[in-house]
Amino acid sequence: MATTLLQVRIDAQTKKEADALFSELGLDTSTAIRVFIKQALKKRAIPFSIKAKSEERTEEEAFYSPENVAQLKQGYKELKAGRGIERELINA
What we know:
By secondary structure, this protein is mostly helical. Helices cover about 60% and strands about 0% of the residues. It has five helices and no strands. The protein is elongated and about 70 Å long.
């Protein structure tokens, strides 16, 4: 099959990061781009979800929000110190 050249402009830092990632995955960047295009053609769609940025957090974003992570860490400390929910239920 004949091949053709595809050129894409991208900032140098993004290219460097992509090259490093794809190298870790055992690919070069050209191969990774070919894989993307082949999957898009096979699925007749972009092979991953693309969404407009929303004002609302997704469930995963909300779970890992700084506020929730802080609350989870505090709860963990309280459990380790014997002040967790089990103790509250026993004393209720």
